[in-house]
Write a structure and sequence with these properties.
With 70 residues, the chain is mainly α. The chain has a domain of 28 residues. It is built from 3 helices and no strands. The N and C termini lie far apart (75 Å).
Length: 70
Amino acid sequence: MKLLIVAFLACFALASCKSKTADQPAEAGPNAELATLLEKYYEDYLELFPLDATAIGDKRYNDRLPISFT
C-alpha cells in the first residue's frame, strides 16, 4: 500500500512540473484583436453605466451619476 501511495505521489509530482515550451511568448494576432475588442467593450460599458464604474472604484464617470434625491 505504501508503494502505491509513493508511486501516485511521484506521478503527481512529475505531472505538475512546468514544461520548458510553455515559456514561449504568445503570438500577436487574433488574441490581440480580441483583447482590444474586449477592452473597448469594457470601457464603453463603464461609460454607459456610471454606477457600475463607481461601484468598482473607477471615478472617471462620477460626473454622470444620476441625481436621485429631491
